[in-house]
Automatic annotation (TrEMBL):
<comment type="similarity">
    <text>Belongs to the leucine-binding protein family.</text>
</comment>
<protein>
    <submittedName>
        <fullName>ABC transporter substrate-binding protein</fullName>
    </submittedName>
</protein>
<dbReference type="InterPro" id="IPR028082">
    <property type="entry name" value="Peripla_BP_I"/>
</dbReference>
<dbReference type="Pfam" id="PF13458">
    <property type="entry name" value="Peripla_BP_6"/>
</dbReference>
<dbReference type="InterPro" id="IPR028081">
    <property type="entry name" value="Leu-bd"/>
</dbReference>
<keyword id="KW-0732">Signal</keyword>
<feature type="signal peptide">
    <location>
        <begin position="1"/>
        <end position="24"/>
    </location>
</feature>
<dbReference type="InterPro" id="IPR051010">
    <property type="entry name" value="BCAA_transport"/>
</dbReference>
<feature type="domain" description="Leucine-binding protein">
    <location>
        <begin position="30"/>
        <end position="368"/>
    </location>
</feature>
């Protein structure tokens, strides 16, 4: 049994290595977009697929003489499924690029396949710092939790928040957020009364919120992945925590634009730090939001959509620059160092780390034309992932 498994993985590795060298059809350029289209992370899949399609509608499907084909697969956010789909896309479909990756475990499951087959892997959602180090073929168009958490830990103590309890999802991005927020907050003279971690799958926030209530800190710092914010906000209100004088702060994942419109007044005044708000007041963003909403029955784009949109741009530009010649390594080379204006603001892909460098904004939830938005009130420019500079 063991031998057979070994034999199978050796075969799979050989097949992957061979695939990196040859493309099925010289005139087609295939992007294998793996996303959670169903299950707990389905909003991420819906947002990124819509954004990728918008990019193609705006920019056409012929680049450098090649027909771009987008192949969307649903991994239901289970990393074993992500791995199997990636393997099939590389071996059978001979995709030129792998993309998507709704959660960190999915990105980590696919990283070795990218390395073995020399296929660029454009991570559009997952945001644990270490993902870019899991394969030299990873390029990230989303963000990292350390990148967006530090700014809030600088803001909080200057704004009456001296004690916090952190509440994070118990996996990569949550642990990154907890660590980088807490360390900076302590450095700034704050006190962390407790650090709570909730399971990623089917979380019940109630007992954790009760604990926070009992500890009565000035604020609760939250990281939950996109899609889970509304549940936290609802239970926070139901327990009367805001009335008890506990403020809710967090990374912008908790006031996700996909759900913010339906969160109700409990969200008003919540301060978060993040790289994208649908209310970002630039002409590029205004056009992006209007076009996205028009193409998707009024759905408001969130930060996942922007990761998908910019990821497509990175792929298109690399294809333009290389003319599709030179395979995965040439494409990867052409992705490094790209610089452009995103709907989120100016960004660039650091050639050394393959991670995105971008502005981080402090935002407060306010009503604009009767709807809730994350309104930016401060900016820290050109922030690199602090998770990298430590090693
Ligand atoms: C992740 O799994 O890396 C992840 C997912 C959703 C987020 C942020 C990070 O909002």
């Amino acid at each position: 049994m063991h031998k057979r498994t070994l034999f199978r993985s050796a075969l799979a590795a050989a097949a992957l290595a061979a695939c990196g060298l040859s493309f099925a059809d010289d005139n087609v350029f295939k992007i294998g977009l793996i996303l959670p289209m169903t299950g707990q992370q389905a909003t991420t899949g819906r947002q990124i697929e819509a954004a990728a399609k918008l990019w193609m509608a705006q920019n056409g499907d012929t680049v450098a003489g090649k027909k771009v084909q987008l192949i969307v697969k649903d991994d239901t956010s289970l990393p074993d499924v992500t791995r199997r789909l990636a393997q099939e896309l590389v071996v059978n479909e001979k995709v030129n690029v792998l993309a998507g990756m709704g959660i960190t475990p999915s990105a980590l499951a696919v990283a070795p396949i990218a390395t073995q087959s020399k296929t660029p892997l454009v991570v559009m959602a997952a945001a644990t710092s270490s993902i870019t180090e899991a394969s030299p073929f990873v390029v990230r168009s989303s963000f990292t939790l350390p990148q967006v958490s530090v700014a809030l830990a600088d803001w909080a103590p200057k704004n009456g928040i001296k004690t916090v309890v952190t509440l994070v999802s118990d996996y990569g991005p949550g642990i990154d957020a907890e660590k980088y927020f807490s360390e900076r907050f302590l450095f700034n003279g704050g006190k962390v009364a407790d650090k709570l971690r909730v399971p990623l799958r089917n979380p019940d926030f109630a007992p954790f919120l009760q604990k926070v209530r009992d500890l009565k800190p000035d604020a609760m710092f939250v990281f939950v992945p996109s899609g889970a914010g509304a549940a936290v906000m609802k239970q926070f209100a139901e327990r009367g925590m805001d009335k008890a004088g506990i403020r809710l702060i967090g990374t912008g994942d908790v006031t996700d634009d996909d759900q913010l419109g339906d969160m109700g007044d409990v969200a008003l005044g919540v301060v978060t730090s993040h790289h994208y708000s649908a209310a970002h007041p630039s002409p590029v963003n205004k056009k992006f939001v209007a076009d996205f909403e028009k193409a998707n029955k009024g759905l408001r784009p969130n930060f996942m959509a922007v990761g998908g949109y910019d990821g497509m741009r990175i792929i298109y530009d690399a294809l333009k620059k290389t003319g599709g010649k030179g395979g995965g390594e040439a494409l990867l080379g052409a992705m490094k160092g790209q610089i452009f204006e995103s709907p989120r603001g100016p960004v660039f892909i650091d050639a050394q780390t393959r991670d995105i460098v971008q502005n981080v904004y402090l935002r407060k939830v306010e009503k604009k034309d009767g709807q809730l938005y994350n309104v930016e009130f401060d900016v820290i420019k050109d922030v690199k992932d602090p998770g990298k500079s430590r090693k």
